[in-house]
Amino acid sequence: MNLEALILLIVVLVLVALIFYISGAIVGQDWSVSGALVLRIIVVSLVAVFVIPIFRDAAASVGIADLGLLMAFVLLVVVVRFILVEELAVAEEWLAAIVISVIAAVLIFVVDEVSRALFDLRLLEIL
């Protein structure tokens, strides 16, 4: 891995962490941040950036790419529920996890499309 790829990977991790912070703040209606919440957001971001592409690529190699993407989204919902939602004050934890995951997935897709349009760079395919 060269220096440019490492810098791009760090930028993607920061963007995904910011997206998960915004998603959690929208759902939890609390824009304050604590040290524990930052660590939880970083862990969820690491899973989203590294583990989900592995699920997607493994399913694509078997020929079930759409199912792999669905399994990756379910994994994201479970990770958000047990890592991130624990720190938020919400009544329905599973519903909050699903909403946070949907908002984050949409925002990540928007950032990816904007980066493709402006810089001809696919952020979701850096690995």
What does this structure look like?
The protein has 127 residues and is an all-alpha fold. The chain has one domain. It contains 4 helices and no strands. The chain has helices spanning 3-28, 35-62, 65-84, 93-119. The termini are close together. The mean pLDDT is 88.
List keywords for this structure.
127 residues; globular; 4 helices; single chain; mainly alpha
Estimate percent helicity.
over 70%
E-strand count: 0
Strand content: under 5%
**Chain-averaged pLDDT:** 88
Apparent shape: globular
Whole-number total of structural domains: 1
Q: What's the helix count?
A: 4
User: Largest beta sheet, briefly?
Assistant: none
Q: Which value, in Å, is the CA radius of gyration?
A: 15 Å
User: How far do the termini sit from each other?
Assistant: 10 Å
Order of helices and strands: HHHH
Oligomeric form: single chain
Point out poorly predicted stretches.
none
Q: Helix/strand/pairing class, anyone?
A: mainly alpha
